[in-house]
């Protein structure tokens, strides 16, 4: 199934996928996960959305030992399980 979404909708999809990931994830892995779920989105849109989430204070970016940017939802926004 293919999904067409506006940029605001795509931000929400990226945020939801990031929230579902366990811990931190890099943008490329997040993009591949979205694509495997039938979401039509470019890597650039994923990274733009991730940067927007970081700048808005919902997500954080850390630098891995291999110098790769990893993204995760801040703890205060995670659902209690």
CATH class, named: Mainly Alpha
Major β-sheet strand ordering:
1-2
Annotated CATH homologous superfamily: Winged helix-like DNA-binding domain superfamily/Winged helix DNA-binding domain
Characterize the overall form: globular
Distance between the termini: 30 Å
Average pLDDT across residues? 87
Number of alpha- plus pi-helical segments: 3
CATH architecture designation: Orthogonal Bundle
Low-confidence stretches: 1-5
- How many separate domains make up the residues? 1
What's the count of strands? 2
Which keywords apply here?
disordered N terminus; 2 strands; two-stranded antiparallel ribbon; 47% helix; 81 residues; Arc Repressor Mutant, subunit A; globular; alpha+beta
Q: Can you describe this structure?
A:
This protein is of the alpha+beta class. It has a single domain, classed as Arc Repressor Mutant, subunit A (Orthogonal Bundle), CATH 1.10.10. The protein is 47% helix and 12% strand. It contains 3 helices and 2 strands; from the N terminus they run αααββ. The chain has helices at 7-20, 27-36, 43-56; strands at 59-63, 69-73. A two-stranded antiparallel sheet has the order 1-2. It is globular and about 25 Å long. The termini are far apart. Mean pLDDT is 87; it is low at 1-5.
């Amino acid at each position: 199934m293919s999904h067409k979404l506006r940029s605001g909708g795509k931000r929400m999809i990226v945020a939801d996928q990031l929230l579902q990931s366990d811990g931190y994830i890099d943008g490329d892995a997040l993009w591949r996960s979205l694509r495997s779920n039938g979401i039509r989105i470019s890597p650039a849109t994923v990274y733009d959305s991730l940067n927007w989430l970081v700048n808005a204070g919902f997500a954080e970016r850390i630098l891995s030992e291999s110098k790769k940017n990893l993204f995760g939802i801040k703890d205060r926004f995670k659902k209690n399980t």
